[in-house]
Amino acid sequence: MTTTPIATSSDQDRAKLAAGRSAAAKYCFEGARLGLGSGTTSHYFVRALAEQVRDGLRVVGVPTSNGTRDLALSLGITLVDLDDVDQLDVCIDGPDEIDPNGSMIKGGGACLLWEKLVARTSATMVVVADHTKAVPTLGRFPLPVEIVQFSWGTTTKAVRALLREHGYPADLGIARRERGGSPVVTDNGNFIIDVQLDTARDVNELTVELNEIPGVVENGFFVGIADEVVFGWPDGSAQTYPFPLELPLRQPAR
After folding, report:
1. Helices marked H in 55-111 — which ranges?
2. Which stretches does DSSP call E strand in the chain?
3. What is the mean pLDDT of residues 23-48?
4. DSSP state of 190
5. Which residues make Cβ contacts (< 8 Å) with residue 115, sequence separation at least 6?
6. pLDDT > 80? residue 47
7. Which residues are catalytic?
């Protein structure tokens, strides 16, 4: 296989690249139908996949964001619409946090709806991450919730009320995500509110109940979706781990 240098600027990026290269080598096979994740680690995977495609590997991909679509097309990866496949073979995507049971918080890149759709349509969902993404309990990373723009404040109040029913404090931090002084708008034309849970509780219940609120499109809890995870390390090593994870992670010997 032709391996070309892929630029990295930090130890964390080198760990992400290691995870992406390992996943591309292990899970991408001739004729595979792949879900292509979003975010920095997933984009390292897409770049590693493109090396195999240049060497003749024939695959098709379904992107989980416009950003991933543009990257994949620029690298010569053939894309198809999710509606045109009954099931994807593998979805490879990264988390913002992942706990020992494989539950995740995702959506830091505001792509959670497409990410969950593609993951749920895949026979296997493989997580790629640098080793720092493994946490004993979800919640330090704010939970993204995608909501419609219409009356977004009313939807936010309903989200807060539901969380209070589950024992979260009344002054829980909830903020509409902004960039450069303007609201972040998802690829679907919606807003994102970020909920600072600190320590997530009742994750299984909230995964369902948040989506029952009128105005909520999707939430960033990904529960019962991941099948295994590839963690990368700054020295270029990577390893596939089953669930449940044993924390702290042990770095593979080289």
Report:
1. 66-74
2. 33-36, 60-63, 88-93, 97-98, 104-105, 122-130, 143-147, 173-176, 178-179, 182-183, 191-196, 216-219, 221-222, 228-232, 238-241
3. 97
4. -
5. 37, 38, 64, 65, 93, 106, 107, 222
6. yes
7. 115
